[in-house]
Amino acid sequence: MSDTDRRVLIGEAALDVAAERGARALTHRAVDVRLGLPVGSTSFYFRTRKELLRAAVTRLALRARADFEEAEEEQEAPSDVEDAALRIASLLDHMVGPRRRDTMARYALVVEVADEPELRAALARAAFSVPLAADLLTTLGASEPRAGADLVAFTEGLVFDRVAGNGALDAPEPGSAESVGRFADAVAIFLRGAVEPSPR
To answer: Which tens digits make up the pLDDT trace of 146-179?
Structure first.
Protein backbone atom coordinates (compact mmCIF):
# COMPACT_ATOMS: atom_id res chain seq x y z
CA MET A 1 0.00 0.00 0.00
CA SER A 2 1.37 3.42 -0.96
CA ASP A 3 1.86 6.26 1.51
CA THR A 4 -0.96 8.15 -0.22
CA ASP A 5 -3.36 5.23 0.18
CA ARG A 6 -2.40 4.82 3.83
CA ARG A 7 -3.01 8.53 4.46
CA VAL A 8 -6.45 8.28 2.84
CA LEU A 9 -7.32 5.28 5.02
CA ILE A 10 -6.20 7.14 8.13
CA GLY A 11 -8.24 10.21 7.18
CA GLU A 12 -11.33 8.05 6.66
CA ALA A 13 -10.79 6.21 9.94
CA ALA A 14 -10.41 9.55 11.72
CA LEU A 15 -13.82 10.56 10.38
CA ASP A 16 -15.28 7.25 11.59
CA VAL A 17 -13.94 7.83 15.10
CA ALA A 18 -15.13 11.44 15.24
CA ALA A 19 -18.60 10.56 13.95
CA GLU A 20 -19.10 7.62 16.29
CA ARG A 21 -17.39 8.76 19.49
CA GLY A 22 -16.86 12.51 19.19
CA ALA A 23 -13.81 14.60 18.41
CA ARG A 24 -12.30 14.17 21.88
CA ALA A 25 -11.97 10.46 21.15
CA LEU A 26 -10.01 11.17 17.97
CA THR A 27 -6.45 10.19 18.87
CA HIS A 28 -3.62 8.50 17.02
CA ARG A 29 -4.14 5.36 19.08
CA ALA A 30 -7.89 5.31 18.35
CA VAL A 31 -7.18 5.40 14.62
CA ASP A 32 -4.54 2.68 14.94
CA VAL A 33 -7.08 0.49 16.73
CA ARG A 34 -9.79 1.29 14.19
CA LEU A 35 -7.56 0.18 11.33
CA GLY A 36 -5.94 -2.72 13.16
CA LEU A 37 -2.51 -1.12 12.80
CA PRO A 38 0.43 -1.39 15.20
CA VAL A 39 0.43 1.37 17.80
CA GLY A 40 2.37 4.35 16.44
CA SER A 41 1.43 3.81 12.80
CA THR A 42 -0.88 6.83 12.56
CA SER A 43 1.60 9.12 14.29
CA PHE A 44 4.21 8.11 11.70
CA TYR A 45 2.06 9.76 8.99
CA PHE A 46 0.49 12.54 11.08
CA ARG A 47 2.81 13.43 13.94
CA THR A 48 0.58 15.83 15.86
CA ARG A 49 -3.11 15.83 16.70
CA LYS A 50 -3.52 19.00 14.66
CA GLU A 51 -2.14 17.17 11.62
CA LEU A 52 -4.59 14.33 12.28
CA LEU A 53 -7.47 16.80 12.50
CA ARG A 54 -6.29 18.37 9.25
CA ALA A 55 -6.30 14.95 7.59
CA ALA A 56 -9.90 14.36 8.67
CA VAL A 57 -11.07 17.79 7.53
CA THR A 58 -9.25 17.39 4.21
CA ARG A 59 -10.95 14.04 3.55
CA LEU A 60 -14.32 15.57 4.40
CA ALA A 61 -13.73 18.50 2.03
CA LEU A 62 -12.62 16.22 -0.81
CA ARG A 63 -15.68 13.99 -0.44
CA ALA A 64 -18.01 17.00 -0.41
CA ARG A 65 -16.32 18.50 -3.47
CA ALA A 66 -16.77 15.22 -5.33
CA ASP A 67 -20.49 15.28 -4.49
CA PHE A 68 -20.84 18.86 -5.74
CA GLU A 69 -19.01 18.10 -8.97
CA GLU A 70 -21.06 14.98 -9.61
CA ALA A 71 -24.31 16.89 -9.08
CA GLU A 72 -23.19 19.68 -11.40
CA GLU A 73 -22.09 17.30 -14.17
CA GLU A 74 -25.29 15.28 -14.21
CA GLN A 75 -27.87 18.06 -14.25
CA GLU A 76 -28.76 21.13 -16.23
CA ALA A 77 -29.81 24.36 -14.54
CA PRO A 78 -33.10 24.00 -12.63
CA SER A 79 -36.18 25.05 -14.55
CA ASP A 80 -38.08 26.59 -11.63
CA VAL A 81 -38.30 26.85 -7.84
CA GLU A 82 -39.90 23.43 -7.40
CA ASP A 83 -37.22 21.76 -9.52
CA ALA A 84 -34.45 23.50 -7.57
CA ALA A 85 -36.07 22.64 -4.24
CA LEU A 86 -36.27 18.97 -5.17
CA ARG A 87 -32.61 18.88 -6.21
CA ILE A 88 -31.48 20.56 -3.00
CA ALA A 89 -33.73 18.24 -1.00
CA SER A 90 -32.09 15.22 -2.60
CA LEU A 91 -28.65 16.51 -1.57
CA LEU A 92 -29.82 17.17 1.99
CA ASP A 93 -31.36 13.71 2.19
CA HIS A 94 -28.03 12.32 0.99
CA MET A 95 -26.32 14.13 3.87
CA VAL A 96 -28.58 12.50 6.48
CA GLY A 97 -28.53 9.11 4.72
CA PRO A 98 -25.50 7.80 2.80
CA ARG A 99 -23.34 10.71 3.99
CA ARG A 100 -24.58 10.73 7.58
CA ARG A 101 -21.15 9.65 8.85
CA ASP A 102 -19.59 12.72 7.23
CA THR A 103 -22.30 14.98 8.61
CA MET A 104 -21.84 13.72 12.16
CA ALA A 105 -18.05 13.94 11.88
CA ARG A 106 -18.34 17.52 10.67
CA TYR A 107 -20.45 18.48 13.69
CA ALA A 108 -18.03 16.72 16.03
CA LEU A 109 -14.98 18.39 14.54
CA VAL A 110 -16.29 21.94 14.35
CA VAL A 111 -15.62 22.64 18.03
CA GLU A 112 -12.15 21.11 17.85
CA VAL A 113 -11.03 23.43 15.04
CA ALA A 114 -12.76 26.57 16.36
CA ASP A 115 -9.39 28.21 17.07
CA GLU A 116 -7.84 27.18 13.76
CA PRO A 117 -9.06 29.64 11.08
CA GLU A 118 -7.84 27.59 8.11
CA LEU A 119 -9.37 24.33 9.30
CA ARG A 120 -12.53 26.08 10.46
CA ALA A 121 -13.01 27.61 7.00
CA ALA A 122 -12.35 24.29 5.25
CA LEU A 123 -14.84 22.54 7.50
CA ALA A 124 -17.46 25.25 7.01
CA ARG A 125 -17.22 24.77 3.25
CA ALA A 126 -17.11 20.98 3.43
CA ALA A 127 -20.85 20.52 3.01
CA PHE A 128 -22.29 23.67 1.42
CA SER A 129 -21.05 26.22 -1.09
CA VAL A 130 -22.17 29.84 -0.83
CA PRO A 131 -21.03 30.66 -4.41
CA LEU A 132 -23.01 27.72 -5.83
CA ALA A 133 -26.05 28.72 -3.77
CA ALA A 134 -25.75 32.31 -5.01
CA ASP A 135 -25.46 31.13 -8.63
CA LEU A 136 -28.55 28.97 -8.22
CA LEU A 137 -30.60 31.84 -6.80
CA THR A 138 -29.41 34.20 -9.53
CA THR A 139 -30.55 31.64 -12.10
CA LEU A 140 -33.95 31.55 -10.43
CA GLY A 141 -34.19 35.35 -10.48
CA ALA A 142 -33.19 36.39 -6.96
CA SER A 143 -31.49 39.77 -6.65
CA GLU A 144 -30.60 39.97 -2.95
CA PRO A 145 -26.78 39.78 -2.65
CA ARG A 146 -26.85 37.76 0.59
CA ALA A 147 -29.44 35.26 -0.62
CA GLY A 148 -26.81 32.59 -1.30
CA ALA A 149 -25.37 32.81 2.21
CA ASP A 150 -28.88 32.80 3.65
CA LEU A 151 -29.78 29.68 1.68
CA VAL A 152 -26.69 27.92 3.01
CA ALA A 153 -27.55 28.94 6.59
CA PHE A 154 -31.11 27.71 6.09
CA THR A 155 -30.12 24.34 4.67
CA GLU A 156 -27.45 23.91 7.36
CA GLY A 157 -30.25 24.30 9.88
CA LEU A 158 -32.46 21.77 8.11
CA VAL A 159 -29.74 19.12 8.19
CA PHE A 160 -28.85 19.76 11.83
CA ASP A 161 -32.51 19.61 12.82
CA ARG A 162 -32.93 16.29 11.02
CA VAL A 163 -29.97 14.58 12.72
CA ALA A 164 -29.79 16.29 16.12
CA GLY A 165 -32.74 18.64 16.65
CA ASN A 166 -36.50 18.32 17.05
CA GLY A 167 -36.75 16.93 13.55
CA ALA A 168 -34.71 13.91 14.59
CA LEU A 169 -37.47 12.82 16.97
CA ASP A 170 -39.84 11.85 14.16
CA ALA A 171 -37.54 11.86 11.14
CA PRO A 172 -38.66 9.79 8.16
CA GLU A 173 -36.29 7.18 6.77
CA PRO A 174 -33.54 8.79 4.66
CA GLY A 175 -34.01 7.96 1.02
CA SER A 176 -37.78 7.75 1.35
CA ALA A 177 -40.16 9.96 -0.59
CA GLU A 178 -41.33 11.47 2.70
CA SER A 179 -37.80 12.41 3.73
CA VAL A 180 -37.03 14.13 0.44
CA GLY A 181 -40.49 15.68 0.37
CA ARG A 182 -40.14 17.31 3.79
CA PHE A 183 -36.86 18.85 2.77
CA ALA A 184 -38.26 19.96 -0.59
CA ASP A 185 -41.30 21.63 0.98
CA ALA A 186 -39.13 23.65 3.38
CA VAL A 187 -36.60 24.63 0.73
CA ALA A 188 -39.32 25.68 -1.71
CA ILE A 189 -40.75 28.08 0.88
CA PHE A 190 -37.32 29.68 1.27
CA LEU A 191 -36.68 29.86 -2.46
CA ARG A 192 -40.06 31.42 -3.21
CA GLY A 193 -39.37 34.06 -0.57
CA ALA A 194 -35.97 34.80 -2.10
CA VAL A 195 -37.14 34.85 -5.70
CA GLU A 196 -40.55 36.43 -5.21
CA PRO A 197 -40.14 38.90 -2.33
CA SER A 198 -43.31 40.25 -0.76
CA PRO A 199 -44.38 43.69 -2.02
CA ARG A 200 -43.51 46.51 0.37
So the answer is: 999 999 999 999 999 999 999 999 999 999 999 9
**Rounded distance, CA 55 to CA 15, Å?**
9
Question: What pLDDT is recorded for position 44?
Answer: 96
Number of domains making up the chain: 1
Q: How far apart are CA 190 and CA 148, in angstroms?
A: 11
Please give the radius of gyration of the chain, using alpha carbons only, rounded to the nearest integer.
Answer: 19
Determine contact, residues 85/187, Cβ cutoff 8 Å.
yes
Q: H-helix or E-strand containing 102?
A: helix 100-112
Beta strands in 95-194 (DSSP E): none
What is the pLDDT at residue 162? 97
**Containing H/E element for 16?**
helix 3-21
Question: Per the domain annotation, does 182 fall within a domain?
Answer: yes
Task: Tell me the DSSP string of 171-196.
Answer: PPPTTSHHHHHHHHHHHHHHHHHHHS
Domain, as residue range, for 18: 3-195
Reported residue count of the chain is: 200
Helix (H) or strand (E) holding 134: helix 130-140
Q: What is the CATH number of the domain that holds 81?
A: 1.10.357.10
- CA 175, 181, 186, 187 torsion: positive or negative? positive
How far CA 31 is from CA of 42, 77, 106, 169, in Å, comes to 7, 41, 17, 31
